[in-house]
Specification:
about 500 residues; alpha/beta; TIM Barrel; ten-stranded mixed beta sheet; eight-stranded parallel beta sheet; 9 helices; binds alpha-L-arabinofuranose
């Protein structure tokens, strides 16, 4: 059994872990919005104004900080004025990206803002650059956020909303290198500046504008955008056109045509997945390094507004709906990502898992009135204490905790720690499929009170939750901690995720 030591310096504070690293994403794709969040007011499923209350209740337990909408690729063919006013009169369209199904626009701006209010989450609206206009985007900002009297304010009031909403996060296009217009970086950078100019701050509503950024390790894209963040020489005090720059990266194993099943995989597939998951570290480092050159003061945030596992769709489901099951393997991909996110907290400001309900690496799967919390959901819940916490320096000495995957070595232990309001939270993952790991937490610079630990694991990697077995993978109390003169020791079971919380005394 590998022995490892994690030195945790309780008195060496790192950057704040933005709560927005625990952000979410809801696209008009498959059953994410329709059937997932939205069932309509006439549904027998309990709802408030058409929004599913069981989904809201489950997500409220995660303290979700923000929700990105309406896409994804859908955002660049979405025209917001089709989604306001009396529902029966709203124009319909074809969702050409996702399943070629008809979109009735019943879930629009007012419904989305109501959902954010129910969730207690900030809205992140992704505006249409690919097939929209500057005027259309500018008017959407005005409709949502302006007070007083103006054409868009009168339209909003006519649709029943007197007060402006507060909207902070505003996406300027999505994947402009691909589904959002197949642009070159240079052109996309020019459009980002142009659109950002007309996305005004109305009153005291200050927008955080997020330019459409790179795919995976396309550092050249990031460099081209970063060269255009501000208009040096235009003004005495240059200000950034955009405050955030996005990047998308999915954990995909194998070619797109055969990504593999979400549930039917072997140990070799599992390790390939863990190797793929760990790549996010290098990708975030690469983009951060480029950003540091143009923005050493870190005034622009890196926004990983799409991440997660992407498997073949469940057999028998619409290939355009991207519906996949979610196993313990997905949970360990998530826990590893979060440790890496915490490490990059100085530059990484936001991350949005794709997607929240019924699509890709979801928190929740619904089937009619049934609702299943996935293993990934539990990682978000167990880790929520890291939101807006101060990261703590962790040094892991785990030379033996390594597996060979092809010609790559994959570290099988992952750790991060933070402190908030005097409470320390340590997250630990053992990615080894078969071997437990004995871990010593060498606590320096402080003393911890009585710890409370929870463990997420299952008998096999493929374990997942279903309406028939809702808790096949669910956190359980863990009583295997022992105090030593250096701190704490524990044996972490194979393929497991553990959180430990304790007050600083
Ligand atoms: O999340 C699914 C899709 O993946 C999004 O619509 C798109 O932005 C990305 O390619």
């Amino acid at each position: 059994m590998p022995n490892a030591t994690a030195v945790i310096n309780l008195d060496i504070e790192g950057p704040t872990i933005s709560r927005h690293l625990y952000g979410h994403f809801a696209e008009h794709l498959g059953r994410c919005v329709y059937g997932g969040f939205w069932v309509g007011e006439d549904s027998p499923i309990p709802n408030e104004g058409g929004i599913r209350l069981d989904v809201v209740e489950a997500l409220r337990a995660l303290d979700i900080p923000n929700l990105r909408w309406p896409g994804g690729c859908f955002a660049d063919e979405y025209h917001w004025k089709d989604g306001i006013g009396p529902r029966e009169q709203r124009p319909r369209m074809v969702n050409t990206h996702w399943g070629n199904v008809e979109e009735n626009n019943h879930f629009g701006t007012h419904e989305f803002m109501a959902l954010c209010e129910l969730l207690g989450a900030e809205a992140y609206i992704s505006g249409n650059v690919g097939s929209g206009t500057v005027q259309e985007m500018s008017e959407w900002v005005e409709y949502l956020t302006r007070d007083g009297d103006s054409p868009m304010v009168r339209l909003r009031k006519a649709n029943g909303r007197e007060e402006p909403w507060r909207v902070k996060f505003w996406g300027i296009g999505n994947e402009t290198w691909g589904c959002g217009g197949n642009m070159r970086a240079e052109y996309s950078a020019d459009l980002a500046r142009q659109y950002a100019t007309y996305c005004r701050d109305h009153g005291d509503n200050k927008l955080y504008r997020i330019a459409s950024g790179a795919s995976d390790d396309d550092y050249k894209w990031t460099e081209t955008l970063m060269q255009q963040i501000s208009c040096f020489g235009c003004e005495a005090t240059p200000k950034n056109f955009f405050q955030g720059l996005s990047v998308h990266h999915y954990t995909v194993v194998g070619p797109w045509e055969a990504k593999g099943s979400a549930t039917d995989f072997d140990t070799a597939d599992y390790y390939r997945t863990m190797a793929a998951a760990r790549r996010i570290d290098r990708i975030l480092s690469g983009h951060s390094t480029v950003m540091d050159i143009y923005d050493p003061g870190r005034t622009v945030g890196l926004v990983l507004d799409e991440w997660g596992t992407w498997w073949d769709v469940e057999p028998g489901t619409n290939p355009g709906f991207l519906f996949q099951q979610n196993t313990l393997r997905d949970a360990l991909v998530a826990s590893t990502h979060f440790d890496i996110f915490h490490k990059h907290a100085a530059r990484l400001y936001m991350a949005n898992i794709a997607q929240t309900v019924n699509v890709l690496q979801a928190m929740i799967l619904t089937d009619g009135d049934a609702l299943v919390l996935t293993p990934t959901y539990h990682v978000f819940e167990m880790n929520k204490g890291h939101q807006d916490a101060t990261s703590l320096a962790v040094h892991l000495n785990a030379a033996a905790a390594v597996r060979q995957v092809g010609d790559t070595e994959v570290d099988t232990l992952s750790v991060s720690a933070s402190v908030k309001d005097g409470l320390v939270l340590v997250s630990l993952s053992n990615l080894d499929a078969d071997e437990p790991a004995e871990v010593t937490l060498d606590l320096r610079g402080g003393t911890l009170g009585t710890p409370v630990a929870r463990l997420l694991t299952a008998d096999k990697l493929q374990a997942h939750n279903t309406p028939q077995d809702l808790t096949a993978v669910a956190p359980r109390p863990f009583d295997g901690l022992s105090a030593t003169d250096r701190g704490l020791t524990l044996t972490l079971p194979p393929h497991s995720f553990l959180t430990l919380q304790a007050p600083l005394v």
